Amino acid sequence: MINRTVQNVSKALEGITNGMTIMLGGFGLCGIPENSITELVKLGVNNLTCISNNAGVDDFGLGLLLQEKQIKKMISSYVGENDEFERQMLSGELDVELTPQGTLAEKCRAAQAGFPAFYTPAGYGTEVAEGKETREFNGKMYVLEEAFKADFAIVKAWKGDTAGNLIFKGTARNFNPCMCGAAKITVAEVEELVPAGELDPNQIHIPGIFVNRIFQGKDYEKRIEQRTVRSKN
Predict the structure, then answer these.
(1) For labeling, which of 134, 157, 176, 206 is most exposed (least CB within 10 Å)?
(2) In a domain, 139, yes or no
(3) What values do phi and psi take at 211, rounded to 5?
(4) Closest Cα to residue 218, out of 36, 75, 15, 6?
(5) How far apart are CA 57 and CA 83, in angstroms?
């Protein structure tokens, strides 16, 4: 039986060096690989290009890497919750590539499927399309977008087994699944790790073939960016 488990987060991230391109799953602060981000800060790797839905907040998520100035370029679709991100972007310290959210997801999925590029109508006629090939299909204009090329994809799942099969929970089932297998090496951290064969095959979202390393994380905070509650009457 294939066993993709590694002992801890340090083993999982072996091989990450300065200047690499890294995908990180999650939506806002939901479903982010908290243990792996903390380890990246400890490793001190810099000049990173990070591909993620957003850049976290000032003191959590990718915001921790931004605080240490470890990110050279950020490729995201939403970046509105991070003051340090804004400061670095406006000062020119950080290169930012804003990408429509659907396009960001599809660029991951295309890399996962082995497609080099695809056409999308999103962004045509805007700055997003500048310098890119455009083409008309059935009277509508499309922009050619290339699939991402990443060294590592780091994702977070609710449950996984030793063979690398993954199950995601709730909103964490967003950018995490499409990033699996979309890089040279995919690392999955999970809240619960079980022996291979224990997961219901009908419930698995990502098969282990898309995962290279898996480990059980710990001490998840699972923060909420904007908590909105009903006022008492």
Answers:
(1) 134
(2) no
(3) -120, 135
(4) 36
(5) 8
Residue 3 CA to residue 210 CA, distance in Å, equals: 13
DSSP letter at 196 equals T
d(CA 105, CA 75): 12
Q: Is 110 left (phi over 0), alpha (psi -120 to 50) or beta?
A: alpha
User: Which residues, other chains included, contact 200 with Cβ-Cβ below 8 Å and sequence gap of 6+?
Assistant: none
Q: What is the pLDDT of residues 121-155, one digit of tens each?
A: 999 999 999 999 999 999 999 999 999 999 999 99
Q: Which of 139, 158, 155, 221 is nearest to 188 (CA)?
A: 155
Contacts of 161 (CB under 8 A, 6+ apart): 193, 194, 195, 196, 197, 198, 199, 208
How many alpha carbons lie under 13 Å from residue 231 in its C-beta half-sphere?
1
The answer to whether residue 79 sits within a structural domain is yes
Q: Say if residue 215's pLDDT is above 70.
A: yes
DSSP letters along 115-145, please?
Answer: --EEEESTTTTSGGGTTS-EEEETTEEEEEE
pTM value is 0.93
pLDDT digits (tens, 9 = 90+) for 24-55: 999 888 899 999 999 999 999 999 999 999 88
Residue 182 sits in a domain whose CATH number is 3.40.1080.10
Report yes or no on 117 lying in a domain. Answer: no
